[in-house]
Design a protein that fits this description.
With 260 residues, the chain is of the alpha/beta class. The protein is 32% helix and 17% strand.
């Protein structure tokens, strides 16, 4: 596999004495700049943190908010993992939020070559939406779905508007079909290959992605090292809400136990 990752915008945050690598994959319409709090927290705890803009998002190249095939996302991540492994030969952990969790889950069952993963607020089964399935999908193929980062369902805390220029205003229904239908079917067919250590983070009060997706994923995958944490007050964006300090500390405890 060629290691050309120049089309990805990547934030490299490297402390002097790192003990492992963490690669962050952001959510739908977001960019790596939405994760500066999490990045700073992990760097202060001596982790190399590599946060990148998914293809077609943020400053990365690619058609804005669109993708032909969901495998492109996981293949991009595979190139980045290989590059990081070459540059910093230590354990590699993946963090994926929402859409990023979809990408990481599909990466795991396809490549199965990292030391652990943390999945937050990600769907784990096919979402029923007539616009994403035939015959109605034929009519919505080239349409766009507007994104609302001001929605009260995302977080108790208003999102930082400083990074608004890097967020997408809309995404294609083709992208949504790839993420919420086709990749979910792929994941379901390959649950038996999901043997990586994983920490699942969901919130009881998430009105966008039900915590039941976390329960379903926990029950379906074959990993012998799997854990689900359910938070009581946070909404969808776990890393930018009222329980973010507890969530980051839970991540730190989990990571430290797996780098020994």
């Amino acid at each position: 596999m060629l290691l050309d990752i120049s089309y990805l915008n990547i934030i490299w945050s490297i402390p002097k004495q790192a003990k492992a690598n963490v690669i962050i994959t952001h959510g739908l319409g977001e960019s790596s700049y939405d994760y500066l709090f999490l990045i700073d927290f992990l760097v202060k705890n001596n982790f190399n943190v590599i946060s990148y803009d998914v293809r077609g998002h943020g400053k990365s190249l690619g058609k804005r908010g669109d993708i032909k095939n969901f495998n492109i996302f996981s293949d991009d991540l595979a190139k980045l993992v290989q590059y990081v492994r070459k540059m910093y030969p230590m354990k590699i952990f993946l963090i994926g939020h929402s859409m990023g969790g979809i990408i990481v889950n599909n990466y795991i069952v396809k490549y199965n070559n990292i030391d652990g993963a943390i999945i937050s607020s990600a769907p784990s089964r096919e979402i029923s939406n007539c616009l994403l399935n035939y015959p109605f999908y034929v009519f919505s193929f080239w349409q766009r779905k507007k994104l609302n980062f001001k929605s009260s369902k995302i977080s108790h805390i208003p999102l930082d508007t400083d990074y608004q220029p890097y967020r997408l205003e809309s995404v294609s229904y083709r992208l949504l079909r790839n993420l919420l239908v086709l990749s979910m079917r792929y994941l379901k067919k390959n649950f038996s290959s999901y043997v990586t250590s994983v920490l699942l983070l969901y919130s009881i009060k998430d009105q966008i992605i039900s915590y039941k997706n976390g329960i379903y994923l926990l029950d379906s995958i074959q990993s012998n090292d799997k854990q689900l944490k359910l938070y009581q007050e946070t909404y969808h964006n776990l890393f930018h809400d009222i329980e973010k300090f507890q969530i980051c500390n839970d991540i730190l405890v989990w990571l430290n136990k797996r780098i020994l």
